[in-house]
Amino acid sequence: MNTVISTRGLQKRFGRTIALDGLDLTVDAGEIHGFLGPNGAGKSTTIRILLGLARASGGEATLFGSNPWTDAAGLHRRIGYVPGDVSVWPNLTGGEAIDLLSRLRGGVTDKADYESRKQRLIDVFQFDPRKKGRAYSKGNRQKVALIAAFATPADLYLLDEPTSGLDPLMEQVFNREIARVTAEGATVLLSSHILSEVEELCDRVTIIRAGRTVESGTMAELRHLTRTEIAFAAESVPMPFEEIEGSHDLLIDHGRVSFTVDSDRVASVLPELARLDVKGLTVSPPSLEELFLRHYGDELVTLGQAARS
Amino acid sequence: MTRLAVLLRQRARRDRLQLALWLVGTALLAYASVSAVFDTYGDAEDREEILGIAIATRTILVFRGTPNGIDEGAFAFFLLFAWLALMGGLMSTFLAVRHTRMEEEQGRAEYVASTPAGRILPTIATVVHGVLANIGLGLLIALALIGNGLDSSGSLVAGAAIAASGIAFLAFGLFAAQLFRTSRGANGASVAFVLAAYLLRGLGDAAGTPSEDLLHVTPAWPTWLSPIGYGQLTGAFVENDLRPLLVPLGFAVVMIGVVFALQSVRDQGASLLPGRAGRATAGPVLSSSFGLAWRLNLSILLSWTAGGIATGLLATSLSSIVGDVAGSNPQVIEILRRAMGDDASIEQAFVATFYGVVGILAACCAVQVGIRARQEEVHGTAEMVLATRVPRVRWLLEYWVVGVIVIVVVLAAAGIAGVLGASRASDPETLIPNVLEAAAAQLPACLVFLGVTLLVFAFLPRATIPLGWTIVGVAAILGTFGPILQLPEWLTELSPFAHSPVPSGDDTDWSGGLWLLAIGLGAAAAAVVAMRRRELTSGGG
């Protein structure tokens, strides 16, 4: 299988701040790779290095086997990019910005084909291209970048928190576009700090924290790391409540019973919940922050102490 | 009242460094210049002679003031007042826009307006803040004059004149902030207004009627259109008449009334000049990164070109008036002969002075192109462009090319305007080549500012905007006002503008231009090459 993105021990320092501290990331051709980490973990820095907008301080990074810093312009022919915080030109309309970016990417050689691709995206994203850039909300600025990225076919899409600012309906449109481009053979690197979003889309996931890779694997491989929270109304079950087998962290508070189970064992507690006929049942997927607290809490504490001393 | 106090304190806190620099810096310059004036022109005879030359040549009057006798105070007032009022005007309009339109543009005004302070009180606080700043400036300048041993009542009248014209400019700045949606637009209109006020009173002085003894001038009507002009009409140190100041103050009251009327009817964040619905697809210009750089700098180019055209037209159409006046007065011709040598033509000197200003305009335009590159980087839009097939080196090179184009366009527009204005001159055949040479002579110095701004962008990106403006501003002050302020020659010589060739017939010395050309191209080349190793900074971080 072809490796599209490969970094080994990637480092990046900004003065005395260490943004990346030995980051390993491998993305194979054709996969949708989730790039997960809390805010400030180094996701955007990594993507900027992969785009040749920033230069690595150490380690190596290759994109399609080339150096992203020295071969930037050549590599960019094959890349579609959506920045984490999309800015548009205040005095250009959204339509102008989309056309400009598409032309700069060289995607308009077949004019009619480009126009129909663009028009379809404008329709599905329900975007008004006639407004000036300064008048767009965050979600609409995001749409400018998404439409420009998807209107020109690319081998690799680098998407930095692409759904931030989109409403749930538009997230579904986005998911369909991702499915379309991967069906056409493209590779996608999708950064996020929301685990459920990555779970829904991605084949494989790399989790980073403080500039370092902490986990990498398929979603199934990572399932053991997470616990799902289950909660329901306390009045619907007889008290005292007996702990269900395989559950952890039982808590009865504010009229709610809540506990957690390993995410790959959620189905095993459902028969018992059905037997109890619980009311107001909620099943919440774990947040990334919880995952970090659970598995790396000790490290966080020691890091905190080191920072204070 | 307490809310107003909170808002005032916040303004004072935000401005404490910036405003202190404007106030103390301007007052110190006033103090130093006045004492330098008396070192050079200590004797009444010296002052009498220089006034005679100034009135004879008229060029000097455009950049100085209304001659009002050889009294020490009146002489200092003549040399410095218009320049100090210009500084006070820029201070006031920047202050007005900073606390109104810029706050709205950045969304901060919305937070404040959501509190009980509301939409109107912050503007009231800005008016009070600006008026206090101008009173402070007037007092400090009066102190600087008194400190030089000048008559205290005259000094206070001069300070009051500075404050009154500054308050008029403050009101215009607030008005422009209502009119425009962006702080850039409001600042541009305000600076144009202040410069126009400066030049109008210059025209009034230059076209005024000299007295028989060549020591006084009665200014012509353009002076009555300028707040700075009314400041001069006080005749500080001689007539000490405060009544003319009622005109700029009255203008300020009316303007501020209009500002509150406008603000009470419009939406927060909106402007009176609304944006139009735009095009859905991009035109052919937006097909390349060069096209984008051109498009982003087009409005900058148009406004500076308008300034260049106005200055060029003034240069030649006025030079004919000057020639007429001088030619009809044998006493004037005698003074000129002594001062400038037999060969010098008044018209040539006049044209060279005005095209010096055109050079500053073109250099500012070029600096703004370099600053636009930095704004694209900070704003994050450069990142979107550089994530496509555009290489970093080419991207900056294209900004340089746009910079060269804007310089050439501003200079050419001013040159053509000068040729048009020369049609009524007594001797167009010699004036026209002189005008074109004077315009072309500004090119090398402008290239230096373009190159240096890009060099700062490449090596000290965060400093691009403050350093870019500071370099061109200091160079313009040293180059144009250095001789007026009696600064030492080595200091004046630091300014590239001081080295621009001055066309004077057949024996023009072009060597300074060649040096400037080499420096300008070298700096640009170094900046472009440095982009090979330069990272893009993200979001100002």
Summarize it.
The complex is a heterodimer of chains A (309) and B (541). With 309 residues, chain A is α/β, with parallel strands linked by helices.
SSE arrangement:
The complex is a heterodimer of chains A (309) and B (541).
Chain A: E1 3-14, E2 17-28, E3 32-36, H1 43-50, E4 58-63, H2 72-76, E5 79-82, H3 94-104, H4 111-124, H5 138-151, E6 156-160, H6 168-183, E7 187-192, H7 195-201, E8 204-209, E9 212-218, H8 219-222, E10 227-233, E11 247-253, E12 256-262, H9 266-276, E13 282-284, H10 288-308
Parallel strand pairs in A: 3-7, 3-8, 5-6, 6-7
Antiparallel strand pairs in A: 1-2, 1-4, 8-9, 10-12, 10-13, 11-12
Helix pairs in contact in A: 3-5, 4-5
Chain B: H1 2-40, H2 44-57, H3 59-63, H4 72-99, H5 101-105, H6 108-114, H7 121-147, H8 152-179, H9 183-206, E1 209-210, E2 217-218, H10 227-232, H11 246-265, H12 289-327, H13 330-340, H14 346-379, H15 381-386, H16 392-421, H17 428-440, H18 443-459, H19 464-481, H20 489-492, H21 511-530
Helix pairs in contact in B: 1-4, 1-7, 2-13, 4-7, 4-8, 4-9, 7-8, 8-9, 8-11, 9-12, 12-14, 12-16, 14-16, 14-17, 14-18, 14-19, 16-17, 16-18, 16-21, 18-19, 18-21
Keywords (chain A): Antibiotic resistance, ATP-binding, Nucleotide-binding, Transport
Main location (chain A): membrane
GO molecular function (chain A): ATP binding
